[in-house]
Design goal:
Blueprint lengths: L3 H12 L25 E4 L9 E4 L4 E6 L2 E11 L3 E6 L2 E10 L4 E7 L2 E9 L12
Antiparallel strand pairs: 1-2, 1-8, 2-3, 3-4, 4-5, 5-6, 6-7, 7-8
């Protein structure tokens, strides 16, 4: 029995080793209260947006931004007081008002340096393949 006690102590201490912290939800809420647009692939509906514009708001606060003709970007996002959204690109905070957020539509009004810009997204169709690039 005395020989087993040190082994049990080591196993107990091993279980107490610091590990990777669990992913935390974006500031302003917990994972159970995530907005309806989180964790879904959204396709841009605006005529002026590049073809295949995609936005994916991940629960860990990462925003995946992509289109068929641009290099993808990873940015940060978080909820702000008053149900507002903040997107951080290259260290610049871009406030956005959520005009609508449901399983069928995401509509945002971004406050940019040169004025407000509205963006509309719908769930991305599956499957989807980008069109060929013009040559």
């Amino acid at each position: 029995m005395l020989k087993i006690l040190p082994l049990l102590a080591l196993l107990f201490l091993y279980g107490c080793q610091p590990g990777e912290a669990p992913a935390s939800p974006p500031a302003g809420g917990d994972a159970s209260a995530a907005p309806p647009f989180v964790g879904k692939v959204w396709a841009g509906q605006d005529a002026q947006a590049p073809p295949g514009t995609l936005r994916i708001f991940l629960p860990d606060g990462t925003l995946v931004m992509d289109s068929c003709f641009e290099t993808y970007r990873l940015a940060e996002w978080r909820m702000a007081p008053g149900g507002r959204l903040v997107i951080v690109e290259d260290g610049v905070e871009i406030p956005a008002e959520i005009l609508s957020a449901s399983s069928a539509e995401l509509k945002l009004r971004l406050t940019l340096r040169d004025g407000a810009k509205e963006e509309t997204y719908r769930p991305a169709p599956v499957p989807y393949v980008c069109p060929d690039m013009p040559r």
